[in-house]
Amino acid sequence: MVPRLLSLLLLLSLATSSLTVVATNNYEVYIDRFCHLAVEHQEEFGIPASITLAQGLLESAAGKSTLATKGNNHFGIKCHKEWKGKSMKRSDDSPNECFRSYNTPEESFLDHSRFLRRTRYQKLFDLDITDYSGWARGLRECGYATDPNYAARLITIIERYSLYIYDTQEGRSQEETVAFIRDMLVNTHPVRRTRGLHYVVATPGDTYASIAKEFNLKEKKLMKYNDAHKDHEIKAWEEVYLEEKLETAPDGVTTVTIGEDECIHSIAQRYGMKVKVIKNLNHKASDTPGTVLNLR
């Protein structure tokens, strides 16, 4: 069994580029570091370990975000009225919003678990501990994030790294590396839908060329659908649309603020809008965090 596993690892390393390996390792290192903590919190608070890990990976960019590196905030939790601890400012839904700051990542994980025990999220605890899809959709419905595709991102991360194995004792007894290899070799993307548009959520190492090949599309056409220029890199967990985007904003969305590590293009991807439409509505707008964009 061991020699066969080593052979698979060798084949995997040869089949992927160095860029893919580096990008992926950031996520695997994060999972290795915090998986046991996520399991402990599942047993104490009843939150699926897969959800905790996926939120941490997404919100902190695998521990590399400004909030995580400077404030140990791995879940993007804002101050709110009840917060009495340290804080830091960051542009998100509005310019210069107040976010919680912690002494250690472990404090952030504990605060996240306590945060989800609030009344707002109570209905989630009626779900089965293995229903990560229900939890992901419920977090979005309960208002944890304003991102309309938040649930799809979480589900993609969970399935990409087989995080669901941490939700059960049986799963945790499996060889994690085998799960990672299986997912790496079966590199397919579930097609999702938002606002009537079909899209996939990109994973680390994806390119427009690789996704175009997977769906039998011309690379230039796929790039045009996504307002991508030559050598445009896809961000991990970003939407890649398989058809032409729309010229209107979603119902109820009038303005949006460019957050840290965001730009006009990423806003356009989030809402399935053409970049040129947003730029026409905001002639002098730049990609500066804190910039408020009109979407109508």
Task: Describe this entry's structure for a reader.
This protein is mainly α. The protein folds into two domains: 2-76 and 104-185, Lysozyme; 192-294, LysM domain (Membrane-bound Lytic Murein Transglycosylase D, Chain A). The protein is built from 13 helices and seven strands. The protein has helices spanning 2-15, 18-45, 49-60, 66-71, 105-116, 132-141, 150-160, 169-172, 176-185, 208-214, 219-225, 264-271, 275-281; strands at residues 87-90, 97-100, 192-194, 197-201, 239-241, 255-257, 292-294. The strands form three sheets. The chain has a three-stranded antiparallel β-sheet with strand order 3-4-5. Helix 6 packs antiparallel against helix 7 (150-160). It is globular. The protein starts with a helix and ends with a strand. The relative contact order is 0.11. Mean pLDDT is 88; it is low at 1-23. It comes from Lepagella muris. This is LysM peptidoglycan-binding domain-containing protein.
Cα end-to-end separation? 59 Å
Order of helices and strands: HHHHEEHHHHHEEHHEEHHE
Strand content: 5-15%
Average pLDDT value? 88
What is the overall number of helices?
13
- What oligomeric arrangement do these chains adopt? single chain
- Total separate domains: 2
Q: How many E strands?
A: 7
Second rung of CATH, namely the architecture of the largest domain: Orthogonal Bundle
Low-pLDDT residue spans: 1-23
CATH fold-type name of the largest domain: Lysozyme
Helix/strand/pairing category:
mainly alpha
How many strands, what sense, and barrel or not for the largest sheet? 3 strands, antiparallel
CATH classification, class level of the largest domain: Mainly Alpha
Radius of gyration: 19 Å
